[in-house]
Amino acid sequence: MKNNITIYDIAREAKVSPATVSRVLTGSARVSVEKSRIIREIIEKYDFQPNAIARSLVKKESRTIGVILPDIVNPFFATVFLEAEKYAVSLGYSMLLCNSINDMFESNIALESIYLKTLTEKQVDGIIFLGGRINMVRTDKKLAEEMNTVLAKVPIVMINGRMGGVDCYKVRSDEREGIFSIVEYLTSLGHRSIGFIGGRLNVTSTAIKLNALKDALRHFKLEFNEKWIVISGDFNIENGAKAMKTLLSEKERPTAVIAVNDTVAIGAMKYAASVGVDIPGDISITGFDDSYLCDIVTPRLTSVSHNIPELARKAVDMLCYTFANRSVPKERIVRTSLTIRESCACPRNI
């Protein structure tokens, strides 16, 4: 059996043109029943698998979606990617993961630029973008221009992000709704003093949650105390511990704390336990993301779910609709929900 068989070998043996073989492979034009039968028998005989790049040149599609995210270790980003990949594969698409390594914001942005160029050169059918530049509170004009250059060639869907001046598709979870659900739950337990820890002020996921907290506290006629807001500069376990240390040093402490995400909440719980502060007896803590981590800590962490499977499916669907030239709204919103576990309880003075 001949190795590395090509479309030209198939054509030669079938006594037809390479274009005819291509038409049989793609089903894009009519070929006589007899010729089609002969060509397919030869294809089957050699177990011929057409090269993916060759198919993409014929059909003008690569059946590939690129994903750019800042931190594959972060449970939120990892789970979004896995759910998107699972769904995309079921639709016949492959995924290319580009992890922009969120160790320093500057290097994160530089890697994003490299990946945008690489994915465009690889002729992916679309790009799903998370974190980094699309989570900056103030849009960088040059970065927006770069996105628009790519957008002119490839459709882009942003998940939980936005950029001023970039008119692409967006799907986001309703983080404001999530914060309101936490505050409503904590007030139902009797909490009247609520703090917030973690994140960065120049990142939208922090800003959205903090603004929602102010509005929710106002709605429930509770005090917003600046001393109970500790923006620790990042979203990891170490910064959660650092934020909780700062909060516990206050003479007056809140009875409940909302963390910007689950990893910050776990860091806060870890530090609290190390200094003899009982969770939830002395202080209640909630996370945000409802990641798998919530069920493996003690006590299990109450957290807000982004409904990640739906978030991921909507992002992939938006791209697929554009591939098929179907109309689709520019923005989709996914509702959040609160998952109650054991990290919250009534304050001791109730």
Automatic annotation (TrEMBL):
The keyword Membrane does not apply. SUPFAM superfamilies: lambda repressor-like DNA-binding domains, Periplasmic binding protein-like I. It comes from Clostridium thermosuccinogenes. Residues 2-49 form the HTH cro/C1-type domain. CDD domains: HTH_LacI, PBP1_LacI_sugar_binding-like. PROSITE patterns: HTH_CROC1, HTH_LACI_1, HTH_LACI_2. GO terms for molecular function: DNA-binding transcription factor activity; transcription cis-regulatory region binding. The keyword Ubl conjugation does not apply. This is Uncharacterized protein. Keywords: DNA-binding, Transcription, Transcription regulation.
